[in-house]
Every structure is written in structure tokens, then in C-alpha cells.
Design goal:
alpha+beta; Methane Monooxygenase Hydroxylase, Chain G, domain 1; 7-stranded mixed β-sheet; two-stranded antiparallel ribbon; 7 helices; 59% helix
Length: 325
């Protein structure tokens, strides 16, 4: 799908078809492509004399990178929240003196809202340069990164809480959950860092387009924001490491609890074995075919049984006092 905005003397013309007007010397144009069809790609390539390769391959990129400097084309990995879920997309930017072409690899209400915000913004504010349009797009995107980082922070806190709660000698979190969060943060850090490099290239003139001084300064603000988000991601990685430490401590506690319970069971079994051993030994001795005390006395059985009971009871009381039973 193709959406276009034409900015001319404080007026904004928008449309969603291939019959867009080409910009004049008094106007600027913003073209937004969402999963462009072959026909849409061919139309944009022919109208603005672009190399078609980036438009056909940018969705496969694993990180932000620059493609071509004339016109300046780069792909940026972006992150956003949609229905409470973190989504990822590749966005291709093509910068020309009067035209900014943006193509995204996946449809999203978030990017549709950005296009609408840009249209509303330039109804009240006159476009100064393509850099001014680019700044407004990047500013919306960079603000969304804070929402994503906040979502990840909440996930880390939830994982840490669940890791610290042991129920029935089980932890309601898997180590894979923690490692997945760590992987997401590493991906975000690489994404932010690569984007800051691209913005730096635009600011120092590698893009070879006219950018007014104010828009250049505002792009610098976006650059600094990305650097701050890199620091935030690093802090969150430390939180993930702490959560992993809590998880390991919980596992150690479960192991200690299991070992302690096993020791208690072994101690009780040993005590019960000792109680049974006393009458067993006495009965075994009196089962021998030899003359033994009380063996032929008429009350001998009762005496021997009484001794066995007394010794067993004495051992039982001793074990109970030592908390072995």
C-alpha cells in the first residue's frame, strides 16, 4: 500500500494511490510504503530514479545499515508496542532534496499513526527541509522505544519476582525466559547503536541533501536520545543479570530444601531401624540352641519380653528427645 503527503505553503495534500503528483521547487513530498507491491515499487523506482535493490532486500536486514549515498538510502530496525506485544520491523529511508520515501516491511497501526501525526504537524508548521520531515518520523519512533524499554523493564521485574517465589519446591519461571529477555536487550542495543551511526552520517553531510540548521540540531537531539536509550538498555541488562542471580539462588534453596528433607527421612528410617534392632538382637540370641539365663525358667519369657520392651522404649524416648523421630 502507498500513502503520500505533499506539503506546499502550509497546505497538506494526501492520497493513497499511485497517481501522486511529483514535487515542485516550492513543495516537499513524503511517500510511505507498507509492504509495497511490485507495481508500487516499480513506480517509485522509475519516478525518482532509484536503485531497486534496497527496496527488494531491506526486509531481510538484521540491523540498521546504509545502502547507497546518492540518493542516500538506509534501513533501520525499529521496535514498537502493538496490543501490549513488542513488534519489530525494518524501515527503508530514501532521502532526496524534496522527497522522503519510507518503506516498512510489515503493516502496523503505529506507523499509520506516525503518518497521520506528520500530516497534522505540517498543517500548522511549514516544512523547512526533508530533514525536518525525517526528524518528525524519527522522533515518534524514538519516543516509542521508551515504551518498549518500559515494557521490558516490567517483564524483568515480573521474572525476578516469580524467580524468588518458591512454591512446592518449584519456580514458576524458566531460565529460557530470562535468556530471551537478555537477547532482546542485546538486539535493541545493536539496533540503537547502528541507528545513531546513520543519523551521524546524515548530520555530517554524507546524505548530500539540503538540511536546514534547525532540523540538523533536532536530528542531534534524536541522536542523543538514542544514546540515552543505549544506556537504559545496558541498565536493563544488569537487571536481567540480577534476575538470573535470583533464579540461581532459588534453585540453590530448592536443592537445600530437598537435601534437608532427605536427611530427615534418612534419620527417621535409621531411628526406626535401631528400634527394631534391639528386640531383634535379643530374640536372635535366645533363639540359639544353648543354655542361656532365664531360658528354662517358667517366667523367663516375660522377663525377656519386658527387657526388650524396656530397652526399646528407652531408645524411643532418647530418639524423640533428640528429634530423630
Amino acid at each position: 500500500m502507498i500513502t503520500y503527503l505533499v506539503f506546499s505553503e502550509g497546505r497538506v495534500k494526501r492520497g493513497k494511490n499511485l497517481n501522486y503528483p511529483l514535487p515542485t521547487k516550492d513543495s516537499y513530498m513524503f511517500i510511505f510504503l507498507t509492504r509495497p507491491t511490485e507495481q508500487e515499487t516499480k513506480k517509485v523506482v522509475e519516478d525518482f530514479h532509484l536503485n531497486p535493490e534496497p527496496l527488494n532486500t531491506y526486509h531481510k536486514a538484521t540491523h540498521s545499515r546504509r545502502y547507497i549515498t546518492k540518493p542516500f538510502q538506509f534501513v533501520m530496525r525499529t521496535t514498537f508496542l502493538e496490543n501490549g506485544t513488542i513488534g519489530y520491523a525494518n524501515i527503508l529511508f530514501v532521502l532526496m532534496n524534496r522527497v522522503l520515501v519510507v518503506s516498512t516491511s510489515r503493516p502496523s497501526e503505529f506507523y499509520d499513526a506516525i503518518v497521520e501525526d506528520i500530516a497534522r504537524t505540517f498543517i500548522k508548521t511549514k516544512v523547512r527541509s526533508v530533514g525536518h520531515i525525517l526528524y518528525n518520523f524519527l522522533q515518534e519512533d524514538v519516543d516509542e522505544n521508551y515504551e518498549v524499554l518500559g515494557k521490558l523493564e516490567q517483564k524483568i521485574k515480573n521474572v525476578e519476582t516469580r524467580a524468588s517465589q518458591i512454591r512446592q519446591k518449584e519456580i514458576s519461571v524458566r531460565v529460557d525466559d530470562i535468556l530471551a529477555l537478555k537477547s532482546q536487550l542485546f538486539r535493541l542495543s545493536r539496533q540503537f547503536w547502528a541507528t545513531t551511526r546513520v543519523i551521524s552520517l546524515i548530520r555530517i553531510g554524507v546524505a548530500q541533501i539540503d538540511i536546514d540548521r534547525e532540523s540538523e540540531r533536532m536530528l542531534g537531539d534524536v541522536h542523543e536520545t538514542f544514546l540515552h536509550q543505549i544506556d537504559v538498555a545496558a541498565a536493563l541488562k544488569e537487571m536481567v543479570s540480577d534476575a538470573l542471580t535470583v533464579y540461581q539462588a532459588a534453585l540453590s534453596n530448592i536443592s537445600a530444601m530437598t537435601s534437608n528433607e532427605l536427611n530427615i527421612v534418612v534419620k527417621k528410617l535409621t531411628s526406626y531401624g535401631a528400634l527394631l534392632l534391639i528386640p531383634t538382637v535379643i530374640a536372635s540370641i535366645y533363639g540359639m540352641n544353648v543354655n542361656l539365663p532365664f531360658a528354662h525358667w517358667q517366667y523367663g519369657f516375660y522377663v525377656i519380653a519386658g527387657v526388650m520392651t524396656a530397652l526399646t522404649a528407652l531408645a524411643f524416648l532418647r530418639f524423640m528427645k533428640n528429634d530423630w523421630l
